[in-house]
Amino acid sequence: ETGVTQTPRHLVMGMTNKKSLKCEQHLGHNAMYWYKQSAKKPLELMFVYNFKEQTENNSVPSRFSPECPNSSHLFLHLHTLQPEDSALYLCASSQDPRNSYEQYFGPGTRLTVT
Amino acid sequence: DQQVKQNSPSLSVQEGRISILNCDYTNSMFDYFLWYKKYPAEGPTFLISISSIKDKNEDGRFTVFLNKSAKHLSLHIVPSQPGDSAVYFCAAAEGGSEKLVFGKGMKLTVNP
Questions:
Q1: A80: left (phi over 0), alpha (psi -120 to 50) or beta
Q2: Given an 8 Å threshold on Cβ–Cβ distance, is B101 in contact with A48?
Q3: pLDDT in tens, A13-59
Q4: Which residues of B touch A102 (CB under 8 A)?
């Protein structure tokens, strides 16, 4: 595997379910990000992890819970979501966000909350 | 309040012609700008960037121009090819920040 991978690519879940999104980067980067892309809206940054430490939480509701066990893996745990949370969730990584703004994105997980 | 704006949702050009994609920003603290390209069912891929100390950066068929006084940047693609058909996102960052602020994107269609 190369680049940034995300699983699953598609997910349908009910409002009472608990599910997790997984992201893995094979680039040797130190920072990882979660973004949300809703229809007709810009990409919205959700969380930033730099060297496994969370450095940014962009006022995201607690029903979204990130986890970064190491620099290569990032999870987004989902529970009691709302239909308006349906969106494309993108993971990205970068070498060092303080020196390089170039982020490399995964293909995304298309989430539908019913 | 959107800090990065791509006011045109779409653009259609003929193969071989120039494509000009525009982006405006409101935050004068932004000092680094990037363009990303996104195909359907794929994540955005980095295309080209420019620092605020420059007013032009060129990479092959792609050139980005920055007008700091107007808080405006543009991406020129010459010559345009059908494979350039994608959604293009403009993004900006403040020095030392981990955050990229994205525009809504613009769909470019290059017709053969």
A1: left
A2: no
A3: 998 889 999 999 999 999 999 999 998 788 999 999 988 788 777 78
A4: 34, 46, 49
Q: E strands of chain B, at which residues?
A: 4-5, 10-14, 19-25, 30-38, 45-51, 56-59, 62-67, 72-77, 86-94, 101-102, 106-111
* A82 or B99, higher pLDDT: A82
**Whole-number pLDDT of residue A1:** 58
Give the percent of chain A with pLDDT over 70.
96
Instruction: Select from B47, B98, B107 the residue whose CB has the most chain A CBs within 10 Å, as the one to mutate to test that interface.
Output: B98
Q: Whole-angstrom Cα distance, residue B3 to residue A89?
A: 21
End-to-end CA distance of chain A: 32
Q: Phi, psi at residue B36, to the nearest 5°? A: -120, 150
Give the model's pLDDT for residue B23.
Answer: 97
